[in-house]
Amino acid sequence: MLMPGALVRRQRRRKVMVVLQTEGDSITCGWTDNGRFYKRRFSADQLRLCMPWSDMWPMT
After folding, report:
1. Disulfide check for 31: which of 6, 17, 19, 42 has CB 3.0–4.6 Å away?
2. Cα(7)–Cα(10) distance, integer angstroms
3. pTM confidence score
4. Which key words are in the record (predicted)?
């Protein structure tokens, strides 16, 4: 299960997103594009973990 704050990607996509919330099998992710914030739900099998939350904090 993905924890909030983890960096994820969709399969075969380049955009990196942040996990905002997990509800059962659906995961809400957020990302910025052209200065706007976007939020969308994905199923857990569509996402791949890029970096766990513990490694993300030094980047911010």
Report:
1. 17
2. 11
3. 0.78
4. Plasmid
